[in-house]
From TrEMBL:
It comes from Candidatus Kutchimonas denitrificans. CDD domains: PRTases_typeI. Residues 20-80 form the Double zinc ribbon domain. InterPro entries: ComF/GntX_DNA_util-trans (IPR051910), DZR_2 (IPR044005), PRTase-like (IPR029057), PRTase_dom (IPR000836). This is ComF family protein. It comes from the Bacteria. Belongs to the ComF/GntX family. Signal peptide: none annotated.
């Protein structure tokens, strides 16, 4: 199907949903139950069931110690021991499971863009170490390729980054980082393939802004699975003058965590 046809169908589906919304009470994107007036897209029960990334966890990559065997929060784990030194810390308020995974899917694949505001608000509340908190100065979303952006119509990472920027009171550089080429979907690849897939897939657009020089950036995405995408972004950003990058995602994938235990 060509892009125009697909957009046409998406447009009709959206119009149908808008039309239905006028007659039906708003429903939760996860459980389809009815929403209270103050809820934005997901009900309070589904939020309360979202699995949190619990303490104690690795001080650097934020993986809960239950998945790594690291005993104390002030220790680091083997998972992040081989990461680039410029990739400073990662945080995610939730584990990619249950209702948290359902929210990621609703936003990314079912077009529930209104979820990004509250998801981003909760991401913005995640805390890094004191040094990182003091340093981060600019928010950068992980970009989609032009092809995927045409297919989906929006970049979920950018919507989340907008909300994080608003709640953290930091500037957003939405177009700073760009995807050089279309990469295969990471979800279907093994960890080693992921790294090969995204290596050199990103570049900093045009002349890097003065604000990038020596800055500590906060890279935002929906899910962190392996750090392959993050490391490829860090290479591009630090190659263009940034001093360090920390990563904030809504959820942390469990598949990798489970793999560590084996
Ligand atoms: Zn619900
Ligand atoms: Zn770690």
């Amino acid at each position: 199907m060509d892009g125009v046809g697909r957009r046409g169908i998406d447009g009709s589906a959206r119009r149908l949903r808008d039309w239905l919304d006028r007659f039906l009470p708003p429903a939760c994107a996860v459980c389809a139950g009815s929403l209270a007036r103050r809820d934005s897209g997901v009900c309070q029960l589904c939020w309360s069931r979202a699995p949190a990334c619990r303490f104690p966890r690795c001080r650097r990559c934020g993986i809960p110690s239950a998945d790594t065997g690291v005993a104390a929060t002030d220790a680091t784990c083997l998972e992040c021991a081989t990461w680039l030194p410029y990739l400073r810390e990662c945080r995610a308020p939730y584990v990619m499971a249950g209702t948290a995974a359902a929210m990621v899917h609703a936003l990314k694949y079912r077009g529930w863009k209104e979820l990004a505001e509250e998801m981003g608000r909760r991401m913005a509340a995640a805390r890094f170490s004191r040094e990182v908190e003091a340093e981060v100065a600019l928010i950068v979303p992980v970009p989609l390729s032009a092809t995927r952006l045409r297919e989906r119509g929006f970049n979920q990472a950018e919507l989340l980054a907008r909300s994080v920027a608003k709640y953290r009171g930091l500037p957003l550089a939405a177009d700073l980082l760009q995807r050089r080429r279309h990469t295969r979907r990471q979800a279907r690849l093994l960890p080693r393939q992921r790294l090969r897939n995204v290596r050199s897939a990103f570049e900093v657009a045009g002349e890097p802004e003065a604000e990038l020089a020596s800055a500590h950036l906060l890279l935002v995405d929906d899910v962190l699975t392996t750090a392959a995408t993050a490391e490829a972004c860090v290479r591009a950003l630090c190659g263009a003058g940034a001093r360090a990058v920390s990563v904030l995602t809504f959820a942390r994938a469990r598949r990798q965590l489970a793999g560590k235990g084996g």
